[in-house]
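As a warm-up, study this chain.
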Amino acid sequence: NGVLIGIVNDSSVDLDLYHVQSFDRYSWLALAGMGTLLGAWTLFAHTGVRRHAATITFRRTGVGLLLLITVHLVVLHLAGVRDTVLMVWPLPPVVLLAALDRRPRMAPGLLLLAVLAAYTAHVLDRYAQKREERDRLVLAERTVAFDDPVVELLFRDVVDAIHDDGRWSALWKDETLPCTPTDLDQLRQEHFTGYWERYDVRLTLLGRDLRPRCTTAGEALDWTAFAELTGNGMPERDRPVLRTERQGGGDLLFLGAVLPRNAEVGPIVVELRSRLMPEGLGFPDLLLAGDRPIDRRLERYARARYEAGELSGLTGPYPYPLEWARAMDGPELRFREGAYDHLAYGDPAGTLVVLGLPVPSLLDRLTTFSYLFTCYALLAGLVLGLRELVVHRGFPQLGLGMKLRVGILLFAAIGLVLFAIGARRLAGGQYEARSRELLEERTRSVLVELQQKVGGEPRLATDLGPYLDHLLVKLSNVFFTDLSLFATDGELLATSREQVYTAGLLGRWMDPGAFRRLHLKGASAYVQEERIGAAAFRTSYAPLRNDQGDVLAYLALPYFARQAELEQERAGLIVAIVNLFAVLFVLSVVAAAFIANWTTRPLRLLEQGLERIALGGTNEPIRYQGQDELGHLVEVYNRKVAELRASADRLAASERESAWREMARQVAHEIKNPLTPMKLGLQHFERTWDPDAPDAGPRLQRFTAGMVQQIDALSTIASEFSSFAQMPRAQATDLDLREVVRAAVDVYHGHPQVRFTAELPEPLPVHADREHLLRVFNNLLLNALQAIPEEREGLVEVHGRVQEGRAVVSVTDNGTGISEADRERIFRPNFTTKGSGTGLGLAMVKRLVENAGGSVHYETEEGMGTTFRVELPLRR
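Now compare it with the structure written out below.
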């Protein structure tokens, strides 16, 4: 939690998935890092689940999870976190990992990715919002401070330009010459155009005595007032700066002074008052250095600026009121209105700034989840694919269901990619056509206006430069774009944005390609893409003709003024396509899982039915209503199941009859063995009995004892056959197999000729009948004891372990082993290799173990010994 929150909350990386178009490579790397971190946590948790899966019970699992959640809650509480999702989020992944460990399937895997994506989306939404609130407050504070670095940068250029303006040298140096506001207006029109139109520029020329000589302001500002307002006295001559001051009513203004190089000449005082100007002229961004992410985010907000409660600036789609009427208890106010979240900062009686951001909708949140799910799915697919390539040196064989899922996802992904490419090309074409059409339309409109003003001129002389500059500035403010006029020889004649050329961003000569198309080839219009550094923009060129049809100049309309807005619109369209792609991809994943499960369900039923097929089983038919190919396959299966059931019934009847015959033969044989000596003994006793003989008493006792022994043998035979024929029903309980084995081994401890050992290091939890298992191990131990010759020092070893989810107990002896001829008959109920006994012991062992869900195997080597291995499923 802490690492993910730190990445979102404390870093400068932009992780706002609601504005994915602003993502850079660091943002995608941060998302990949978060996915890798969650993947590492998942592997760690899966290792723990797999390690303890064999010994975990439901009660133990519940207690462990409760303890884990309690510790988690305490740690987060001490850390000051009050977030329910952060407190309980590990629980669903652990449950899904346990389900995956028990039976690997696609559905739990997709649910696991969905849970991790939902958790990440929650962290991003909650903590990115907190960071956005902090950043918005910082931006509001900066905006209230009215920090305009463009004005400060341009002011230095204007000072140098005024110093180099020779026409003003005489007026500046000779105070006897009259100075009128018209003179200062001309100075303002020549040097304070373009971006300066955002401000009401007021100029005041001071004399040597620092008193006003002339001014364009209604009330002249003398040097004493200027010094009082700035509070800094005389600025340095080689470092012209603008100073910000607030007047009564909260109005902000910039104050600056153009100091002459000759100290005996008075300065020019410059006052700048902000106007209500709609933004759209994006040129100033080209003059600013640096790339601070927090400054780029300002473009996301709808912005309004109020001075003394009156709207003085408006940007963005939200219609803020002309007058501020909300009460504020402090400098900061947050409120929601019109599906926007607003932050108002400042003083309602002075300067107030409002920044508004659209409230994310449910679709936006769903898109965020889709982004993360898609990223995590691609990352998981990449990691699993690489793992298969490295571990198995190739991709594994896929089942039919997985082939269907992969095929559906592959075709869906290809279709979505092609759709995204096509939509992007279509959107790009529409964007190009729209921007070109808009550019050409504005070019035509500007040409019409210019032809009305200068259409009567036979040629445009250089002395018309200031007039043309003033005219282009006015048209620039009308059409919200920058304008330039080039002479017929390609040299710059006039422009609405002199700073572009004085700053060296553009050359003062017309682009060669455009000049060749218009001047040499006579094109009526030409649009091309140009660059200033990394900023790309389009420029429209067209010839300006007079009323006689002669070319006066070439008009250039560089559209970097609205380029950022158009690029934002284009980015928004591309983001919409990406959002649709992400949502459709997630739906494709869900659809692939559903279609694959729906299609392979009859196959799974067939698989389960085939697994259950047994001669003595129920062999139930599969219920399937479809009439497709799978339906025909199920129909064939059901028909074969019915035939198998009939064959099984016939075979069972035949086996029962054969078994009873064999059992009757065995019983007759076992009973006949003691009856024969009893008959012979009775006949001999009848012939030789003499009650008067001196040894009659002892002889009768010997005869009676022999008869009792034979009768006991008959009784034993009858009991054993009865036990085998009527096996009692198992009473399964939860137990530790070690206790049963130890109880069986303890009986044989202290045997004079055979040494018994037992190694049972770890618990063996099973669910079975204790008495049945005790009989199993009693029989195995007795067989091991009887298999050891009298002349050999006997050793019986018992070992227990957990292997692949099963409890395994082996009984090993060093007896004579089992001969090759006897191995196939070892578990038959009437087979025995001993001189006495019924041959039912191992048959009973096999039957009891299989009834408990286990199996019995053996390994033997003649003359060396035998190992019987009992395997039972571990208790879940």
